[in-house]
Amino acid sequence: MSDMFRLTRATRLPNFFPVFCGNQEVPNHFSRTAFPMRATLLLATDLDRTLIANGLHPESPRARPLFDRVVARPEVCLAYVSGRDFVMIQDAIREYLLPKPHFLVTDVGASIWTWEQGGWQRHTAWDAVIAPGWRGWSGERISSILQGIVGIEKQEASRQGLFKLSYYWFAQDQLENIVREVVQRTRDHELHVDIIWSQDEITGEGFLDVLPKGASKLGAVRYLQRLGGFARERTIFSGDSGNDLDVLTSEIPAVLVGNAPAAVRQKAIALSQSNGNSSRLYLAKGAHGMNGYYSAGILEGLAHFIPETLAWIS
Fold it and tell me: What torsion do the CA atoms of 88, 93, 99, 105 make, to the nearest 10 degrees?
């Protein structure tokens, strides 16, 4: 599956991306105040099984308090990057008492939310960046051309997004053919899409999302990085699953937490090597008196890439 995943994942920004994120001035409809004024480090992290310890492995008792202390520092801009939708992320923040981030990247990268004027605001400039990939089509209309593909079933209406069409997949050995068929049918209608798939390590459920080209976790993290003016070496991502692989194997310094499934670990290593980004991927294994799982792995990777932060967790 590694070749097929590389074919369909977001490996580069769409051609129109530099209008917003290159050397151009930040657009007027984007408020720079969404970024903390003294922030010099962008920490972007997945939630489930990465920051949130809701997997099969134990959490180091010291890890979450240390993480909360680190992200409260004025140097840190915190973004949650998740497959959850906006409501589900809010639920997670309340249930797991997560620190309030500066940004939410929801729907596997298809939506960005900023905290401004006392509330969460949808960042419509990101919508404008990714929308051309679907050429004005709705998710419902796209689903109509995908009907009849064997091995997938459309998810509930509550799991769909403005720029996210979500399915369940049921058999690993059919996944490559499923992806190939989705790519072909959307291409036949001149739609430009990215396909992101993952599997829940506990329930075994398979998830497949059809997004506009560039609407991925990688695209969204790059967008925040450039708009906030963060240097590449001061941008850190952490994840654990298949829908994190595009960032984990990119040029952005990234941490694969120690509790990640073996299959994800193998894919991350192989893809980072083939992309020439092996030095940008850190595999958490346990350090600083913690086990490397969940937030302990995030902190371990942070200290690896930015040694000055080791003092923050001592």
Answer: 0
Distances (CA, A) of 164 to 53, 199, 220, 252: 26, 17, 14, 24
* Amino acid type, 30: F
Q: What is the pLDDT of residues 51-80, one digit of tens each?
A: 999 999 999 999 999 999 999 999 999 999
- Tokens found for residue 197: 């798939």
For 190, counting Cβ atoms within 10 Å of its Cβ (0-12 exposed, 13-18 middle, 19+ buried), the class is: exposed
Its sign, for the CA torsion 120, 217, 298, 52, is positive
Stated as kind and residue range, the H or E segment containing 267 is helix 262-274
Whole-angstrom CA distances from 127 to 113, 131, 182, 219, 276 are 11, 6, 23, 12, 30
All structural domains of the chain? 18-128+216-313 (3.40.50.1000), 137-212 (3.90.1070.10)
Q: How many CB atoms lie within 10 A of CB 35?
A: 18
Q: Are 214 and 14 in contact (CB under 8 A)?
A: yes
Residue type, 281: L
What pLDDT is attached to residue 19? Answer: 31
pLDDT class of 8 with cuts at 50, 70, 90: very low
Distance CA 295, CA 103 (A): 18
- pLDDT tens track for 208-245: 999 999 999 999 999 999 999 999 999 999 999 999 99
Mean per-residue pLDDT for 31-44?
81
The pair of three-digit structure tokens given for residue 188, joined into one six-digit string: 């036949």
**Which of 27, 95, 26, 103 has its CA nearest to residue 71?**
103
